[in-house]
Design goal:
Number of strands: 12
CATH architecture of the largest domain: 3-Layer(aba) Sandwich
Shape: globular
Radius of gyration: 25 Å
Strand content: 5-15%
Number of helices: 13
CATH class of the largest domain: Alpha Beta
Largest sheet: 7 strands, mixed
Order of helices and strands: HEHEHEHEHEHEHEHEHEHEHHHEE
Number of domains: 2
Strand order of the largest sheet: 7-6-8-9-10-11-12
C-alpha cells in the first residue's frame, strides 16, 4: 500500500532535514572579538620606535588569544585596529577618531606626548577607555584628573602605565648620584640639552625640579640649559655653546632624529668630557640608531624604562621578537606596548561588561597586575591621577654596540663604564 504525503508534511520534513544538514555549517557559533585601537607613529621620523610598539602589541594580542582570549567572557578574542600618526602631532586625534569609528572599544598608544595628548580628547569625548603605553608628559593624565575632580567631566577614561616626566627626573637624579659615587667621580659641570617639544620640555622641567630638590654634590648649570627646535637640521651652534661651558658631563634629551645630529657633532667638535649621561629619551637604544651612530653612541648612558631580562619570560618573548624584527632588541617601546595589551586583557577579564566603558574604567581602577615584562617597583596599579607609580626607569649604557642595563644593582646585567675611555 502506498501512503500519500500531504504538502504540509512534506515541507515540515524537508525543513527539518535541511536544518540537520546545514546547522553545523551556517549556524556554528563564531568567537566574538573585542577591538582595541593601537595608534603609534609607524612612519615618519619616529617610525622605528613606533614600529616596535606595533609589533610588541601584535605579539601580545597573539599570546592572549592563543591562551584562550578573555576567558571570563567566553573566550572573546582581542583584535587590533591599527593607526599610524605618521609622527605628526595633529594626527593623534585624527587616528584615534578613525579607529574608534571602526569599532575600537579601547585605545592604546601613542609613544610621543604630543600625539598622545590629542588622543586624550577623543577618549574623553567618545567615552573610550585609553591606556597610554608610552608617553611621559605629566599633563596627559593630570589634566583629565583635574577636570574630573573639579566636576567639569564625570569620568576619567585615560590611564597610563609608563613613567611620567617628573618621575623620570627623580630617578635620573638618584641614578646620576649613585653612579658618580660608585665611580668615585663627582662632575662639577653638567650641561642639560633638550629637544624643545612637549616631551623635551616636560622631561627637562622634571629633571631640573628633581635636581633642585635633591641638592646633590654634582652641579647642573641651570642658567645654561640649551634647547633646540625638533627636528633640527643642524646642531653645530648648540654644541659650540656647550663646548664653551667646559662641561664634565652632557645630559641630552633627544628624539632619534636629533640624536643622529647631536652625537656626531659632539665628536666632531672634540668635546673633552667624562661622558654622556641622559635623564631619559629615545635615540640612544634603538637598533637602527645604534647602527647609524656606531662609536658616537658607545658608552652613552640614559635613564629609560627597560625590560627585566632577569625574568625568563622576558627572555623568551625577546627571542621571538628578535626573530620577527630582523634581530632588534626587545626594548622600551616593544616592551611597554606588549605589557599594555596584557594589562588590558587583565582588565577585561575583571570588567562587569565589555560593552560598558564605565565598567571597564572601574576594572582599570582595581588593577593589580604583577606579570609585566618590564622593570617595575611593584604591581601595576593606577593612582588618583591615573598613573602607575610603580613604573620606573633603569640606567642603560651602550656597551659593545648593545644597550645593557647597568643600574640600579638589582637590575644591572653588566658593570657600567664611567668615565668613558679616552679615544
Amino acid at each position: 500500500m502506498t501512503s500519500r504525503l500531504s504538502r504540509r508534511t512534506f515541507l515540515k520534513t524537508a525543513v527539518a532535514g535541511a536544518a540537520v544538514v546545514t546547522t553545523p555549517v551556517t549556524l556554528r557559533a563564531q568567537a566574538k572579538t573585542f577591538k582595541l585601537g593601537a595608534v603609534h607613529p609607524v612612519t615618519g621620523p619616529l617610525a622605528e620606535p613606533g614600529q616596535a610598539c606595533r609589533l610588541g602589541a601584535q605579539m601580545a594580542v597573539e599570546a592572549v588569544n592563543a591562551a584562550g582570549g578573555i576567558k571570563s567572557k567566553g573566550g572573546v578574542k582581542l583584535e587590533l585596529v591599527l593607526g599610524d600618526t605618521q609622527t605628526k602631532t595633529e594626527n593623534g586625534r585624527v587616528e584615534a577618531e578613525r579607529v574608534v569609528t571602526q569599532g575600537a572599544r579601547m585605545l592604546m598608544g601613542s609613544f610621543d606626548s604630543g600625539t598622545t595628548n590629542g588622543m586624550v580628547s577623543v577618549a574623553q569625548q567618545r567615552r573610550v577607555p585609553f591606556l597610554v603605553d608610552i608617553a611621559a608628559a605629566d599633563q596627559i593624565t593630570a589634566n583629565v584628573a583635574k577636570s574630573v575632580a573639579e566636576g567639569q567631566q564625570k569620568v576619567q577614561y585615560v590611564y597610563r602605565n609608563f613613567p611620567t616626566g617628573s618621575s623620570f627626573g627623580r630617578k635620573a637624579v638618584q641614578y646620576f648620584g649613585e653612579i658618580f659615587a660608585e665611580a668615585k667621580v663627582t662632575p662639577k659641570r653638567v650641561v642639560l640639552m633638550y629637544c624643545n617639544d612637549l616631551f623635551g620640555q616636560t622631561q627637562s622641567r622634571g629633571f631640573l625640579a628633581a635636581y633642585k630638590a635633591a641638592k646633590p654634590a654634582w652641579t647642573v648649570l641651570e642658567d645654561d640649559v640649551i634647547a633646540w627646535p625638533e627636528p633640527p637640521s643642524d646642531l653645530s651652534t648648540e654644541v659650540s655653546r656647550v663646548k664653551s661651558l667646559k662641561p664634565d658631563v652632557i645630559s641630552p634629551i633627544t628624539r632619534p632624529a636629533s640624536a643622529q645630529i647631536l652625537l656626531p657633532e659632539i665628536r666632531k667638535q672634540r668635546l673633552d668630557i667624562l661622558g654622556i649621561v641622559g635623564p631619559g629619551s629615545p635615540g640612544f637604544y634603538e637598533a637602527g640608531q645604534i647602527a647609524i651612530l656606531k662609536d658616537d653612541v658607545e658608552y652613552a648612558m640614559v635613564s629609560n624604562p627597560w625590560a627585566n631580562f632577569k625574568n625568563p619570560r622576558t627572555i623568551q618573548v625577546a627571542e621571538e621578537y628578535k626573530k620577527r624584527s630582523n634581530g632588534k632588541t626587545f626594548d622600551t617601546n616593544s616592551g611597554y606596548s606588549y605589557d599594555a595589551v596584557h594589562v588590558i586583557a587583565d582588565v577585561l577579564e575583571r570588567t562587569a561588561s565589555l560593552d560598558d566603558p564605565d565598567a571597564i574604567v572601574d576594572a582599570i581602577k582595581k588593577t593589580s597586575f604583577s606579570s609585566g615584562l618590564m622593570q617595575y617597583a611593584g604591581p601595576i596599579h593606577f593612582n588618583e591621577l591615573g598613573d602607575n607609580p610603580n613604573a620606573v626607569t633603569t640606567m642603560t649604557q651602550i656597551l659593545g654596540q648593545k644597550p645593557v642595563a647597568v643600574w640600579p644593582r638589582e637590575a644591572a646585567l653588566q658593570k657600567f663604564v664611567f668615565p668613558r675611555p679616552k679615544a
